[in-house]
Amino acid sequence: MAVIVNALTPVLALILLGFLLRRTEFIPSSFWPSAEKLTYYLLMPATLIHSLAGKEIGSSPWLNILLTVGGAIFASVLFVILGWLMRRQMGGAAFTSLFQGGVRFNTFVALALAENLFGKEGLFLASLGAGFMILIINVLCVSAFSVAVGDGVCDLKKVGRDLLRNPLIWGCALGIGINAAGVKLPSAIDGSLTLLGKAAFPVGLMAVGAAYRPGNIARHWQPLLTSCGIQFVCKPVIAWYLAAATGLSGVAAGVAVLLFSVPTAPTAYILSRQMGGDHDSMAVIITVQTCLSFFTLPLTLWLLR
After folding, report:
1. Cβ of 198: how many Cβ atoms within 10 Å?
2. Among 149, 163, 215, 231, which has the highest number of CB atoms less than 10 A from its own CB?
3. What sections of the protein cross the membrane (predicted)?
4. Rounded to whole angstroms, what are the CA distances from 96 to 81, 215, 236, 297?
5. CA distances to 30, 80, 161, 200, 245 from 38, in Å
6. Which of the pair, 144 or 151, is modelled with greater confidence?
């Protein structure tokens, strides 16, 4: 339990700090849109390039991990669509919050727990799985925004344009390209990316807190309830099943389930703001899921053991 508290407390603390800074007007309101833009176009891509370029796959069971995380992600997309079909009155912008709330994962929490629970081997395998997930999830989320926030029609040209213009996709592509080419980043460049990436997490979380309104929970209960069910019940079960089906065992299986048991990513709020989603409901989903995971993660870990 202490491991979970240690991993989640910084997340909640930064959300609370952003909430207090906005309510006390210690920082002008005009700061937050600029901070969100900086995070979206510079800090987050730097994080993706650094994390994906530095992974050495080697002799790890990378194919089994890819099959497990890929299968679980697409299964979660199906659950999101089913949840939306049961509540068709939900608008396109609200659907994007449901989508991100049910598909994304908090990389920081997942990696922190993996290292504390499974040591260096767990951290490496979690980083490898997270690298696969980051690319797949960003492509899916940008595609969902392109369709849902527009006229609801799947215009392949529009989706393609949005993918090509998205800085997160570019970050993933550059990171994977550098990795595949076997290029080692110079220390100066790698160090710069590391520093930029470290800024993405606190700035993004404080932006979530600044946007959070306690009264929005009742207003956005439908995407909140559905996304929590998918995130904390459906995804861990599917990940456990696929891990067993693909032959993962031991630490690798535990890490695979762990990746799909954590709350959604704070970066979902930044993407929602920049692509025209329902950022109010996204802030609610991020905050509530983070709070709930204090209770759901111990249960998941107990079942794993």
Report:
1. 14
2. 231
3. 62-86, 98-118, 124-147, 168-189, 195-212, 249-271, 283-304
4. 11, 20, 21, 25
5. 13, 30, 21, 9, 42
6. 144
Contacting residues for 57 by C-beta, under 8 A, at least 6 apart: 128
Q: Which of 290, 130, 84, 108 is nearest to 197 (CA)?
A: 108
3-class DSSP assignment, residue 158: helix
- Kindly state the average pLDDT of the residues 141-157: 74
Count CB neighbours of 261 within 10 A: 26
Would you put residue 166 in left (φ > 0), alpha (ψ -120 to 50) or beta? beta
d(CA 176, CA 51): 9
**CA atoms of 293 and 305, how far apart (whole Å):** 18
CA distance 164 to 73: 22
Residue partners of 84: CB distance under 8 A and separation at least 6 = 90, 95, 98, 226
Q: What is the CATH number of the domain that holds 282?
A: 1.20.1530.20
Q: What does the pLDDT look like over 161-209, one tens digit per residue? A: 777 877 877 887 888 788 878 888 888 998 998 888 888 878 888 888 8
- The residue written with tokens 């800085």 in the block is 167
Residues 232-276 pLDDT 10s: 999 999 999 999 999 988 889 999 999 999 999 888 888 898 888
Cα separation of 247 and 251, whole Å?
12
Yes or no: say if 65 and 47 are a contact pair by the CB < 8 Å rule. no
Cα(104)–Cα(231) distance, rounded to whole angstroms?
A: 9
Express each pLDDT in 28-76 by its tens digit. Answer: 888 888 888 888 888 888 887 887 786 666 666 878 888 999 999 999 9
Give the domain range for residue 186: 2-304
pTM: 0.81
Q: How many domains, the chain?
A: 1
